Amino acid sequence: MSAVKKIQYTGLNFHEVKQMCGDMVLAPYICMGFSMLSLFTEEGFVSVNEGDTIVMDEKGNFSVEK
């Protein structure tokens, strides 16, 4: 699988993540002092932690690299 786009979530770049993921990502929330996102993937909603990388494949499907 070759990735079309990748973006690392830093906790401060929700705007850029939202541009890439559109309605597939929910607004950030704080859990135990860290910012997290929820991203809709083929497996359902997946948590995206600070430092994780969101990958969009050539078909437009999303996955998360921990």
Task: Describe what this molecule looks like in 3D.
This protein has 1 helix and 6 strands, in the order E-H-E-E-E-E-E. It is mainly beta. A 3-stranded antiparallel sheet has the order 1-5-6, covered by helices on one side. Strand 2 and strand 3 form a beta hairpin.
Judging from the principal axes of the Cα atoms, what is the shape? globular
Mean pLDDT: 94
Please give the radius of gyration in angstroms.
Answer: 11 Å
Secondary structure tally: strands: 6
- Helix fraction by DSSP (H/I, runs of at least 4): 10-25%
**Strand adjacency order, main sheet:** 1-5-6
**What summary fits the major beta sheet?**
3 strands, antiparallel
Report the sheet-strand fraction: over 45%
Number of helices: 1
Question: What oligomeric state do these chains adopt?
Answer: single chain
**What are the segments in which pLDDT stays under 50 over at least 5 consecutive residues?**
none
Structural class: mainly beta
Distance between the termini: 17 Å
Reading the helices and strands in chain order gives EHEEEEE
What's the structural blueprint in terms of helices and strands?
Layout: E1 3-8, H1 14-21, E2 25-31, E3 34-41, E4 44-49, E5 53-57, E6 62-65
Antiparallel strand pairs: 1-5, 2-3, 3-4, 5-6
